[in-house]
Write a structure and sequence with these properties.
alpha/beta; 12 strands; five-stranded mixed sheet; 11 helices; single chain; 3 domains; D-Maltodextrin-Binding Protein, domain 2; 316 residues; 42% helix
């Protein structure tokens, strides 16, 4: 058999004749004339080199070779029907793969977004890469991911960024700290306290240090720690004060007090980021569209600052 002479149309005609048992009925279903169907079956028989059908009392039935060919034809057509469905889902952003680069503090909210997205598009696979800002910046520079979540996005002509979620930074102390008993505080009253800080380059640290510089404050004691969880536990243990994301604090069970310091919480946001010089995949566009339409279903509405029209432009 010369496979080059086969076509999808020949396979479709053969399958329909077998299923209906009649060339005239197959012609009606396929919107062809009966002579055309007969000609197609003859062409297919000549290509295979063996009879595929035989007429018994006015009904076309398969020969032994015809049964094997029918199974093969159904496999081929079925596979491509599956592929067509997959292609349709991919074009709607409901199939494929997304790689996300996410800064450490955003790990508390991104699972809630992805959980909602998975229920909407269960066939999309997501790889989540979590690290400190320096690590995610490296991934951005090397174009390792499709989308990124930063609280302090990179700059440059290749950066596309839009704010999606509020990320207020709160100044916290242990419940038994002397400042926790006051109704109002000026930050100058705290400058002699030890502050627990993330590593240089951390977006939270950058925002805090920018605020300190703008207000002319200088800390006397700092202690660097690599993890928000460790900072949170250390504050609860009385090791010092800290500025942390409100979302980070929500996840903890430690007994902490948000100090009523003038100018706090510091306003910060998480930004959805991509590269302008890299085309987003359909699956990535599907995630962006999902956030434009349903982000407030995944995150408390008061946290959401995403504008649907900006996210719509984001994915173009």
């Amino acid at each position: 058999m010369n496979l080059r002479h086969l076509s999808f149309r020949l396979l479709q005609v053969y399958i329909q004749v077998v299923r209906s048992g009649s060339m005239s009925q197959a012609a009606r279903v396929l919107h062809l004339t009966q002579p055309t169907v007969s000609l197609q079956i003859k062409k297919l028989t000549d290509t295979v080199g063996e009879p595929l059908l035989e007429n018994r009392e006015g009904q076309w039935l398969m020969t032994a070779v015809g049964e094997e060919f029918y199974r093969a034809a159904c496999d081929v057509i079925g596979r491509f029907e599956d592929f067509n469905q997959t292609l349709s889902e991919a074009r709607r952003g409901q199939w494929g793969h997304i790689s996300l680069g996410v800064v450490t503090t955003a790990k508390y909210v991104i699972p809630r977004i992805l959980g909602g997205f998975y229920r909407h598009s269960p066939k999309v696979e997501v790889t989540l890469n979590i690290g400190n800002r320096s690590h995610i910046l490296e991934r951005f520079a090397s174009q390792a991911d499709d989308l990124y979540l930063f609280s302090h996005p990179p700059s440059g002509q290749h950066v596309r960024a839009t704010p999606i979620i509020r990320n207020p930074l709160q100044l916290i102390a242990p419940n038994d700290h002397w400042a926790s008993k006051l109704a109002s505080l000026d930050f100058q009253q705290l400058t002699d306290e030890r502050f627990l800080m993330r590593e240089p380059g951390s977006a939270t640290r950058m925002a805090f240090e920018t605020w300190l510089s703008a207000h002319g404050h200088r800390l006397q004691q700092t202690l660097q720690m690599e993890s928000n969880e460790v900072i949170r536990l250390s504050v609860a243990s009385g090791l010092g004060l800290a500025v942390l994301s409100a979302h980070t604090l929500q996840e903890g069970r430690e007994q902490l007090t948000e100090l009523p310091v003038q100018g706090f919480p510091l306003e910060s946001k998480w930004y959805l980021v991509s590269r302008r010089n890299r085309r987003l995949s359909q699956a990535s566009r599907g995630l962006v569209s999902f956030m434009a339409e349903r982000l407030a279903e995944c995150i408390e509405p008061e946290w959401v600052v995403a504008k649907p029209q900006e996210l719509a432009l984001f994915s173009k």
